[in-house]
Amino acid sequence: MTGSRKPRVAVVFGGRSSEHAVSCATAGSVLAAIDRERYDVVPIGIARDGRWVLESGDPDALRITGPEALPSVDGNRAAVALARVERGTDLVVSDAGRPPETLGEVDVVFPVLHGPWGEDGTIQGMLEMAGVRYVGAGVLASAVSMDKSYMKVVLAAAGLPVMPGTTVTAREWDADPDAVRERLAGLGYPLFVKPARGGSSIGISKAHHDDELAGCLATAFEHDPKALVEVSAEGAREIECGVLGTLDGGAETSVPAEITVTGEHEFYDFAAKYLPEEATVLDVPADLPADRADELRALSVRAFEAVGGEGLARVDFFVLPDGRAVVNEINTMPGFTPLSMYPRMWAATGLDYPALVDRLLELALARGTGLR
Questions:
Q1: Is residue 239 within 8 Å of 257, Cβ to Cβ?
Q2: Residue range 183-202: mean pLDDT, rounded
Q3: Taking the CA of residue 268 as centre, how many other CA atoms within 13 Å lie in the half-sphere pointing to its CB?
Q4: What PROSITE patterns does the database record attribute to this sequence (predicted)?
Q5: Above 90 in pLDDT, residue 333?
Q6: Looking at residue 280, what is its pLDDT?
Q7: Nearest to 106 by CA among 93, 94, 118, 96
């Protein structure tokens, strides 16, 4: 940042993954919350085909209002690129029939991208190469946390409890489905089948018995050629906890919250998460004894540190009927929609939405790029 101008924040959203609409909705909330008195904001959309464009940034146009009313980036807008220059990194806009226009230096990127090609370390690596600060986890933490199969390996190696499971690739299934069935039978039904590198419960289904396995794998393979198959945590409570970095390199946690799914939803699927008037009860904070809440908060920091997290993360737990707490997953770029648990947990902890966004930007601006 040069002179006395306000720091310029590029909010990047959309992307090529199946979570494109969720990313747009998250961006709408972030764009509405950023303090324009403190920051100069530039909305950058990534279209489904990968084109980077200068978006309008209208929060109302980025809301999810129904199952068929999902927001999307308009790929026909003026193209945007990051250009490395002597003093830093500039934003360059190119529109058909007009000479390229330089918008000026970018001080920090807020990548509210979910899923592959965004949350998985790819854009983080690009920003590191460009020398641009950014909000959230670095390359390794993003990649490990996005791939649930490797996330489980890392968490287990750190001594954290995880649900039993295994991975199945589309190639394995096509080559020898009987061998896969035999391997999975050892886990015991019911089983959850999910894309290994997905999110927002997209592509997840529950196989109650062997006859449903093929259909569940086919659903997961529509989104990822690698599926994670896990034992179902029957009768478990679903508890989440927010982690937020501190300027001294540490981390603090929010109060835990609980998700209870009712009605026709057997689990916390996409509709229950994001569509209005769905039958989901969110208890913030969760009704937990103080010692159990403290245990989950401590486990959240351990999970955050195990993957090398930075900035923010949401850690999801199953509290099993026998009282054991198991880490389900860690999400390095949790949703920021009005229904999202991460900002709600921090609001209940005393940090409201605008203050949370401001804190994340402060953390990013204080952190350099490169090895650290």
A1: yes
A2: 86
A3: 22
A4: ATP_GRASP (PS50975), DALA_DALA_LIGASE_1 (PS00843), DALA_DALA_LIGASE_2 (PS00844)
A5: yes
A6: 73
A7: 93
Are 138 and 310 spatial neighbours (Cβ–Cβ below 8 Å)? yes
**Between vectors from CA 223 to CA 217 and to CA 228, what angle results, nearest 5°?**
50
Q: What are the backbone angles phi and psi of residue 168, rounded to the nearest 5°?
A: -135, 125
SS3 label, residue 28: helix
Identify the pLDDT of residue 102. Answer: 79
Cβ-based neighbour number of residue 174 at 10 Å? 10
Q: What is the distance between the alpha carbons of residues 298 and 92, in angstroms, rounded to a whole number?
A: 44
CA 186 to chain centroid, in Å, comes to 31
- Whole-angstrom CA distances from 371 to 54, 134, 324 are 30, 14, 37
The single-letter code of the amino acid at 325 is A
Name the DSSP class of 61. G
Q: For residue 371, what pLDDT band results from cuts at 50, 70 and 90?
A: confident
pTM of the model: 0.88
In whole angstroms, give the CA distance from residue 242 to residue 223. Answer: 27
**Residue that the structure tokens 């998985």 belong to:** 120
Q: Are strands 101-105 and 88-94 parallel, antiparallel or unpaired?
A: antiparallel
Using CA atoms, how far apart are residues 126 and 135, in angstroms rounded to an integer? 13
| Nearest in space to 325 (alpha carbons), one of 303, 347, 345, 351 | 303
Residues of the chain with pLDDT > 70, as a percent, come to 91
Q: What is the pLDDT of residues 148-161, one digit of tens each?
A: 999 999 999 999 99
Nearest-5° angle of CA 106, CA 21, CA 108? 15
Residues 258/286, Cβ–Cβ less than 8 Å: yes
Task: Please tell me the distance from the alpha carbon of residue 314 to that of residue 334, in angstroms, as a whole number.
Answer: 6
Q: What are the beta bridge partners of residue 33?
A: none
1 pLDDT higher than 80:
no
Phi/psi at 11 (nearest 5 deg)? -90, 115
Using an 8 Å Cβ cutoff, are 54 and 47 in contact?
Answer: no
Residue type, 284: V
CB within 8 Å of 143: residues ≥ 6 apart: 120, 121, 150
Three-state secondary-structure class, residue 325:
strand
Residue 258 neighbours by CB distance under 10 Å: 19
The pLDDT tens digits of the residues spanning 114-157 come to 888 889 999 999 999 888 999 999 999 999 999 999 999 999 99
